[in-house]
Amino acid sequence: MADTIILPSDQDASGRSLGDEEIALVTQAIRSGTLTSTKGFAVKELEKRFAEMIGVEYAYACASGSAAIHVAVAAINPEPGDEIVTTAITDMGALTPIMYQGAIPVFADVDPATLNVTAETVDAALSDRTRAIVVTHLFGNPAQTKAIKALADKRGIPVIEDAAQAFMARESGSEIGSIGAIGCFSLQQGKHITCGEGGIVTTNDVALARRMRLFINKAWPYGEAGPDHEFIALNYRMTELQGAVALAQFDKLAGNVRIRRLNADRLTQALAGINGIATPQIAPDAEHVYWKYCLRIDPDALPGGPPALAAALKDENILSAPRYIQKPAFECAVIRDQRTFGNSRFPFSLARPEAVDYSRERFPGTYAGLRDVLVLPWNERYTNEHVDYLADAIRTHANSLTNTVLEVAE
Ligand SMILES: Cc1ncc(COP(=O)(O)O)c(C=O)c1O
Fold first, then answer.
1. CB within 8 A of 93, min separation 6: which ones?
2. How does DSSP assign 23-82, residue by residue?
3. Whose CA is nearest to atom 13 of ligand 1?
4. For the chain, which domains are there?
5. What Cα–Cα distance (Å) separates residue 208 from each residue in 43, 134, 180, 280?
């Protein structure tokens, strides 16, 4: 390998598009003296532009991606013990809101090639207690939302799209976040655009929109006649400081997505034909927006599998992540041991035994997907040189791992 290169990182200025535009808008917000979004300019403008971009009637900003999921679930208003079908390969922030709202996350298995749920795996997880389906577009690669929505429509239940990692992704021409009843986005540090922490929910449904707006605002209907705190809800508002940064970032989103996709295509071409390595599998009608670029490693072809390749890449300053998350969400203490409210185990105390049966054989795709995936860091600040560096490092080390096996076999 040639000299090592330090890749831009989404954890600092090297890999973020934060600059003068953000500073100007934050300054404007501070000088206005109004930092609450109930009265300021920035969050309102962000919401208007985001709704236009996704092609929906309503978008509301909130405190985080986890808050966005919470807002969505609260808007659906499940009864205690209702089930919400989702994935075990996701951020815990997409699951705890379900439990906070008294519903039970029921895990569908995933396609090991994409780590996304499919219409088939969701169908197998549905029951007469299913109240909603959360479809997560992992790594920015669209799941089969339209097929899953068809299943949901038959039962008259809503689909919530978790698009935290999938800004401007599309499925057969439709914007991800506009296909289901509600879309949820995250503006946390490492996402396509960021304001440190933040979230956005989207919908075309006027009733869901009102409930979401209220849930963000302690259920206080600002601007309506005879207001009251209408139901249990939190203060999940985004501040004007965050909104100002997010508004400036919004203008950079399309450019960030374009560069991420161009670079990903370059890497995919450069990695063609390496024994034991598969590049991202994308449905023909889908547009992947590469929050991360994932490889799948065949451990039979590359001895040591993803951990061995990750260790070799680390010597080249490439910090890849085998497994993405260490274990399926249902193996985490909060769900496995049902650590919720006091000693009540609520809402799991209300669950059907099958809804909380996490036997390994029920999740072959989940375990295989986590075993084989290697997540590469990805960034809109990558140049061709960075992409070629990644490709060279992967090819060189994959070949040397394969050759080790061939030498042993000889
Ligand atoms: C798929 C997914 N859903 C939800 C979340 C929660 O978002 P946040 O970290 O902004 O609370 C994340 C993580 O960032 C995520 O990746």
1. 64, 65, 66, 69, 186
2. HHHHHHHHHHT--BTTT-SHHHHHHHHHHHHHT-SEEEEES-HHHHHHHHHHHH-PPTT-
3. 91
4. 13-250 (3.40.640.10)
5. 20, 16, 12, 35
Q: Which atom of ligand 1 is nearest to the CA of 291?
A: 16
Q: What is the pLDDT of residue 393?
A: 97
Task: List pLDDT tens digits, range 89-125.
Answer: 999 999 999 999 999 999 999 999 999 999 999 999 9
Catalytic residue among 39, 48, 154, 191: 191
Q: What is the pLDDT of residue 403?
A: 78
pLDDT digits (tens, 9 = 90+) for 381-405: 999 999 999 999 999 999 988 876 5
Q: pTM value?
A: 0.97
User: Which residue's CA is the closest to the ligand 1 atom numbered 8?
Assistant: 65
CA of 187 to the centre of ligand 1 (A): 9
The residue among 209, 213, 208 whose CA lies nearest residue 237 is 213
Nearest CA to ligand 1 atom 4: 94
Ligand 1 contacts CB of residue 61 (under 6 A) = no
Q: Find out whether the beta carbon of 306 lies less than 6 Å from any atom of ligand 1.
A: no
Shortest-distance atom of ligand 1 to CA 186 = 10
In this prediction, residue 402 carries a pLDDT of: 86
CA distance 203 to 165: 18
191 given a catalytic annotation: yes
Instruction: Report CA(164)–ligand 1 centroid distance (Å).
Output: 6
